[in-house]
Amino acid sequence: MLVYIIRRVLMLIPILIVMSMVAFFLIQLPPGDYVTTRINQMRMSGVTVTDDMAEQLKIEFGLDQPAIVRYWRWVSGIITRGYWGRSLQWNKPVHEILAERVPMTLVISVSALLFSWGIAIPIGIYSATHQYSWADYLFTFLGFIGVATPGFLLALIIAWVVFSQFGFSVLGLNSPEYLDAPWSTAKFLDLLKHLWVPMILIGLTNTGATIRTVRANLLDEIHKQYVITARAKGMDEWKLLWKYPVRMAVNPLLSSLSWVLPGLFSGAVLIDIVLSLQTVGPILLRATLAQDMYLAGSIVLVLSSLTVIGALLGDITLVLVDPRIRFGRLAK
Fold first, then answer.
1. What are the b/e assignments for 23-59, b being 16+ CB within 10 Å?
2. Does 230 map to a domain?
3. Which one of 53, 228, 244, 274 has the fewest beta carbons within 10 angstroms of its own beta carbon?
4. 161 neighbors 254 (Cβ within 8 angstroms)
5. 193 is in which domain, residue-wise?
6. What is the tally of structural domains in the chain?
7. Residue 11 domain-assigned (yes or no)
8. DSSP letters for 67-135
9. How many CA atoms does the CB half-sphere of 100 hold within 13 Å?
10. How far is 252 from 241, CA to CA, in rounded Å?
11. How far apart are CA 329 and CA 79, in angstroms?
């Protein structure tokens, strides 16, 4: 196992190098750059910008250097000093922006993931063990609705219903009076009042698909020979279900770590924008539109790295949890 992990980690190095190049240069593929976008905004607001001023802005933001030089400075800063560059749009170091947004993004995403799995796994198990019952049809119907309904549409509906019926705005993570206030018990309680809405909405976006996945995999497992043999030997049905088929049925959830981890970091962008949440997703969208290469490139690099790391963790977890994979690998 140790050799397997070391080999997989060493394989990550060239992948991350390629990802860093793609993340940095991809942001700069559209015509123009950050200075061009800023100058256009200034001119639209009535400010006169001369060619000399435009050139000075390029020098100020380091855009007068070739792209390969800017890339090398960015990567060398990350490797040697942990410095991810300075956001052109926010005029502050990238790591400070991420430090402000990442913790709350993780709180929302992790709570939403636990909420989704806490609902989807039991429902999927019940639907599989009570196939074609009225409850199975009901959960299947609700699951299809969950898969087909966009998360941002649910966000708009819930925000409108809560405000119209209770006079409470669910937008943002804090009420206006607590936005710039230091952390206190009152601010924490106010956060909890707002947190349940994005947690449920983001969780529901994956719940329908997870129910269908668990149900389909468990239906496939409970009809296999090893389950029939264990049942014939008199093994308790409840113990049999949880010890063998359920463990196999949740394998897709473990293998999905490659996209779960980036999702935990970035959140649900459209839902975050609709609910005005202070998370990573909206600033990634703003940085991409403004061609803020250091901020957008850093976020894309982190997301890409988490995808690769998630795939590695998923593979290791599957080897540990699923005896078929473990023994099959050892047989080779």
1. bbeebbeeeebbbbbbbeeeeeeeeeeeeeeeeebbe
2. yes
3. 228
4. no
5. 103-278
6. 1
7. no
8. HHHHHHHHHHHHHHH----EETTTTEEHHHHHHHHHHHHHHHHHHHHHHHHHHHHHHHHHHHHTTTSHH
9. 11
10. 17
11. 35
Predicted confidence at residue 331, as pLDDT, reads 46
Supply φ then ψ for residue 50, to 5 degrees: -85, 170
**Is pLDDT of 19 > 80?**
yes
Phi, psi (5° rounding) for residue 275? -90, 5
End-to-end CA distance of the chain: 13
Assess if residue 246 is contained within a domain.
yes
Cα 214 to Cα 94, 124, 193, 223, 250: the distances in Å are: 39, 5, 32, 15, 6
User: What is this structure's pTM?
Assistant: 0.78
Is residue 81 in a domain? Answer: no
- 226 in Cβ contact with 276 (< 8 Å): no
Q: Could you report the per-residue pLDDT of 147-169, keeping only the tens digit for each?
A: 777 777 888 888 888 888 877 77
